[in-house]
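Blackboard transcription, Thursday session:
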Amino acid sequence: MSLALAARAVRDNAYAPYSNFKVGAALRGAAGAVFSGCNVENVAYPEGTCAEAGAIAAMVAAGETRLTEVYVIADSPAPVPPCGGCRQKLLEFGAPDTPVTLATTSGTEITTTLAELLPGAFANAHMDKAKGSAKGKA
Ligand code: THU
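(Written on the board underneath:)
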């Protein structure tokens, strides 16, 4: 199944009674499988989760930890970009050159990359010094 179709289909199931803004996301895992997720809001607003986070959880639950492509769709005037936190979450499992397509339900698409969405990303290497000095500690 294409990422576009998967993201569009899962968006129908989004639970967004507070924002009324339904989002669908689909990822392609390194082995080729497609994983999808939708936003799930909560009356305690900060407890809501983004569509991208749901798709990542589905991918990891299935035993896949690398993604090669991302697609996000919403009914917005301009293609919807992943929020800042989701950019960092996506990069955890993708690469700087991983393509990310942002789409509207009316058919506009923009393709960018994780590096363009998250320049100067925090990475494991930034902790090298701290990890070295933590060696041997419980
Ligand atoms: N949302 C997503 O699911 N993904 C995005 O990329 C942007 C925002 C959701 C979170 C919340 O349920 C609603 O959209 C409004 O912020």
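Lecturer's comment: The two ends are 46 Å apart (CA to CA).
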